[in-house]
Structures are given as structure tokens and as C-alpha cells.
Amino acid sequence: MKTIRFFLALWAAKIIKLLLRLLRRPGTYFSGKVAIKICPDFLGRIGRPETIIGVTGTNGKTTVCNMITDLLEAGGMDVLSNRLGSNINAGVATALADGATITGRCRKNIGVLEIDERSARLIYPYIKPDYLVITNLFRDSMRRNAHSEYIASILTEYIPKTSKLILNADDLISSAVAPENERVYFGMERLESETEAPENIVRDIGVCPDCGRTLKYDFRRYHHIGKVSCECGFASKKPDYLALSADFDKMRLTVSEKGEEREYTLISDTVFNIYNELAAITLLRELGKTPEEVEAALGKIEVVKSRFWEEEKCGKTVTMLMSKGLNAVACSRSFDYIRREPGKKIVALMYDDIFDEKETSENIAWIYDVDYEFLSTDDIAQVIPCGVRALDGKLRLLIAGVPEEKISPVSCEAEVADAIRYAEADRIFLLYDVYRHNIAVKVRAEVMKKIEEASSC
Amino acid sequence: MLIEILYPELCNLFGDTGNMRYLKSCLPEAEFAETSLHDEPKFISAAPSLIYMGPMTERAQERVAQRLMQYKERIGELIESGCCFLFTGNAMEVLGEGIETADGTIEGLGILKLRAKRDMKNRHNSLFLGKFGDMDIVGFHSRFSTAESEEPGFASVVRGSGINKGAQSEGVRKNNLFGTNLLGPLLVINPDFTQFLLGLMGSDSKIAFEETSRAAFKARLAEFKDEKRHLD
Q1: B115 with B106: CB under 8 angstroms?
Q2: Dihedral-angle region of residue B146 (phi above 0 means left; psi in -120 to 50 means alpha; beta otherwise)
């Protein structure tokens, strides 16, 4: 039932959004925050799309959410989403208020909502996704998320029993969430290009959940992702949608769907993004889209490039890679990517927490969960830890086996471009935390300028 | 020199594995034995120079307490004989009398006069500045539990929280057993304490990467002492 309080909240949200738009401010969650302040159960009263798709998980949820929204839009659907907003309850409220008429009726039939794992208790009592994709669960910020077992328990407690789950069979933690819910699994066979994974520091599940024996992997892709079996009979789930092979030359992905083979356009050549694409394909197929419809839509989209940028200048390639700081797995994935790239490489690390450096002192424990050891190879010519924690970064690199002469700590981003020994490498990687994007863009501009000056090309 | 790491497949949260990687750099000749949950610990038949256990999930804590119960007399003997122990994060709670949870009490080994209380609805995060003798100690707290202890503390509180919010001391010390709620790379970020521990373990080695370690420590200590910066 819609109350006067609800209407006041809705109209306030709409006016605030209009004002923010006029002021050219992003307004990703503020209008929703005000709406919830005025009407605490705003999410329960606002009109919702007939079909709601939720996307949650530690890593990849923004990419999957964008992919699903793009695919549905490419198929001609008008989609409500919070892709431009935040993924907490206020961000969801902002998206729903934007998509509602002034009487609170939802104008769209389908919604795709990215939902923060920790916001489960604030969102799921009101918003009950018909389909909920869980990309994966890894350890994340220890302050907020504690550990992945804790997040799995929160999701199991709050996910509505009516939601059909789309789960990663290769992830033992997320695939076990909410066991009573209807579920479909996606997974990936070992690809031809994949060798046995190196030892990652982080493995969030080490023992069999049934008997407690040390888990044996038939194949481990990275961290705890892979296929396991235990002598007690416990094993990874069997995928309903299984990627059989990926042809990176022709950019084709072969998927076995409940026993039938299908081919799709492969939209990214990184394994992490193949999982993201598989999650999106599985969701669309479960929504009732035909393989032809999915393929037609896949041909029209690309992975959002905001987290990855690359340009060549005077024979040197500069790459920007954004990762969530405080998230050891995301940063380790970036290091692993660099490790696999050819050429002589220089790496600048701009991961300091932007909030902590001003008000407190960062808890740097997380960097000991990151695979800095991947940077100790001969083809890494120089590593530049940057920021107030540069000495902590240097110490971490020394422990990882990086020779001291290769480590050049600098106290702020403005010093990065000058610290780079350009002659020693042909690839320069600028790694940075999500909240340092604008700063990293400035560093990139400086680096490009220096390359141009040095080469006079 | 033997260093035994207990249950690394479970007790590996929050960057604590950095402690043993750093110790390997400090003691390149030492043997580091990793004991899995279903293996018999080396300390049954040997006296390691250090027995280390890191933080774990709450579910794992129950498993570990059950597993260690059969060895409680031997652990008690080793503590009495002066063997070094370092238990970080919630690992030390299993040595206490019990851990109160919403679902009942998990029985501890009863070696320490310490009772922990777990509250999964409230996570405590803060930074810690304390004193161990005349040494400064810095560290990180991130936990669901607090404790009451009758044992002597590991460090006195200068800023931040101790074993519980109002306590004047952090962790416990019993002979050469150091139990602390501090987590993460405790040995990496506390060069003075690590040098002291190496001595207790019978080594005259200097800490690894000493210059960088001390410079990083000095920078952190200045921040932790800065009253304008909050520690919680």
C-alpha cells in the first residue's frame, strides 16, 4: 500500500535527482538515501518491474550486470538498472525511483540490479529477484566482509526462497549458498591454453565441507576456483551450462547446454570474463531466450573498458588496470595478467586506500594475501610502490623475492612518471584502486608525455 | 631449527601467512613444517622452536578446538617448558576455557584462563598501539569476539582496544606463549618484537630487510601516535 509518507519520499527523490542532473552531479545514490530516510520501507512500496534479475558476488558483478543489461537492450528490451548508481539499498532505491511514474508505478517490465552482498538484509526483504546470479565469493575487505564463509552465511539467510539462483559450479563457496533454492550451474572445462595454476596465497576453502579432509583439486584454475572431489564422495557441482572450449583466434565460445552444444561469440579473452559471459548466457537462456537470440545480442556488445585501458606510444605500450583495493583476489588477478603478458615490464602500484590515508592509517594486512610473488620474475624490470604506504609495499616486494634494485618506492602519484626507467622496458602497467581513477588518468598522461619526449617520435 | 605451522589450510585469514613468509626470510636455514588438520602435529614427538597458528573462520575454530583437544596436555607441557608459541587473531581463543556463541559454548582446551564471547552481528575493526616491555607494538584488530582473561597480557594498551573494549592489556602471555587478537603481518610490522622473538627461539639472526622494515615501522608508529588520526 502506498502511504502519504511514501509519496513524499518518492517525490523528494525525483526532485533531488532533477536538481542533481541540472547541477551535472552523478547522483548515484543520494536521492534513494533521502527516500529511505523519509520512508524506511520505501523499497517495499515502490513499483517494481515484473521480472527482476539480481547480480551479486565478490568480483565481476558490475561486469555481469552491464553485460546482462546490454544483452537485453540489444534484444530490444527496455531495462531498469542501477548500472549508473550504487549497489547498496540507496542505489537500488534511486534506480527504482527513477524508473517509476509520479504515482510510484514502475514504467519498465524488466529490471537488472547489482546488489552488494553486505546489503542483503536491507534489500532482499523488499526486493525479491526472480533470478539471482552469484558470480563468485572470495575474501574481500576484512573490515566490511570478514571472510567469504561469513558472506555466504548472510546470503543464505537473506536470499528469498523464491529466487532461482544462477551459480558458478567451479566455486565451492558460492555454489553452496541457499541450498534450498532452485538453482542452475555454469562452469568451465580446462581450456587448451590453461596450464596448471601457480600457488595462490589465498584459497578460501581448504578442507572438504563434509568431512574436513584437505581438498584435492582435479584442476585448480586460480585461488579456490576449480574442480574438486573428495574421498568421502563430496565433489564440485555438475554444470548445466559448461564452457567446453574457447577459440581466442576466432573469438568463439563453445558451451554444452544441458548436453547440447552451442557456439557463441566470445567477447573477451580473459578467463575471468569468460566466467562473466557464461553467467550472462546462462541467465538469458533460463529467461527463455533462444541461443540465436543470445548470439545475436552478444554480437552487439563489448565488455565495458573502464577497468582496462591500453595505448601504444613510440614503441611502448601503457596499460591501466583498475582493481578493487583491499581485495587481494582482484589485485592478484591483475598481477597474474601482467605475469602472463610478453615483454619487459614496469609496474606502478597505486593501491593505497584513499580514505584511510587522510583520517587514520591503513590496515595493510591484505597486501600479504596478494600474490606479489608473481612480480618476482626476470621480465619485470622495475616495480614502483606508490603512496604513503610505499615502504610497506617495498617490504612486501622484498619478501616476495623482488630484488631491491628493481624496487623504486615513491611517496605520491605525481612522482611515478619521473621514477619510471623507460629504457628498461617496453610495457608499462599502471595499477590502481577504484577510487584513484582520476589520479591514475593524470599519471597516464604524464607517462605518455615522458615517453614522447624521450623518444621524440 | 623447527617451526611448526598448525593447520595452514584453515588458519590463513587476513594476511597472517605473511608472518611465516617473513620468518622464512629471517631464518633461511630453518625447517618450516606445515601440519594439516588430519596430520599428527610434529610437536607430539619434537620440541619446535616456534609453534604458530593464524586466524580462521568461526566454523574452522570449532574444528580446530576439537582437533587440538587430544593434544592439550602436550601443549601445556610445551608451554611450561618455555617453547615459543605465537597464536594470532582468534587462534588464541581455542586455548581458553570456551567460546560463547549464539548457539552455545564451544569448549576450549582450558590451558588459558580466558573466555571469549562471539557476536556475529558486530564486527570490531580498529588499529592498536601498545607496549611490550619498552617496545612499541602496532597492530590491527578485525574480529567478532571479545574476551575476558585472568592471564597476564601480551601488550599494554596505549591507544585502541585491548582484549575487550575497556581492557588495559591486549592478548595473553604465558611463559613464551604469545596469544594476541592482533592479526595480519604482526611480525613484519613489528621489527623490535620480531628480533626479540628470534632471540627467544634461540637464533642470533638479524631480522630480514631490517632497514626497510624499521623505516616502515617508524612511519606507521608516527601515524598511530598522531592524535588527529583515529584508530577505530
Answers
A1: no
A2: beta
State whether A33 and A123 are in the same domain: yes
Determine the residue of chain A that is closest to B210 in CA distance: A395
Is the predicted pLDDT of residue B210 greater than 70, yes or no?
Answer: yes
Helices (H) and strands (E) in chain B, counts: 6, 14
User: Whole-prediction pTM value?
Assistant: 0.93
Q: What CATH architecture applies to the domain B2-225?
A: 3-Layer(aba) Sandwich (3.40)
B17 contacts in chain A (CB < 8 Å): 201, 368-369
What is the rounded radius of gyration, in angstroms, for the C-alpha atoms of chain B? 17
Question: Which residues, numbered 111 to 150 in chain A, qualify as contacts with chain B under a Cβ-Cβ cut-off of 8 Å?
Answer: 139, 142-143, 146-147, 149-150
> Cβ of B140 and A207 within 8 Å?
no
State whether A372 and A273 are in the same domain: no
Provide, as residue numbers in chain A, all residues whose Cβ is less than 8 Å from the Cβ of B12. 202-203, 206
Give the pLDDT confidence of A268-287 residue by residue, as tens digits: 888 889 999 999 999 999 99
Task: List helix spans (H) across A187-309.
Answer: 271-286, 291-298
Domain hosting A412: range is 305-455
ipTM: 0.96
Domain edges within chain B: 2-225
Q: Number of structural domains, chain A?
A: 2
The pLDDT value recorded for residue A441 is 93
* Regions of chain A short of the pLDDT cut 70: 196-198, 303-306, 456
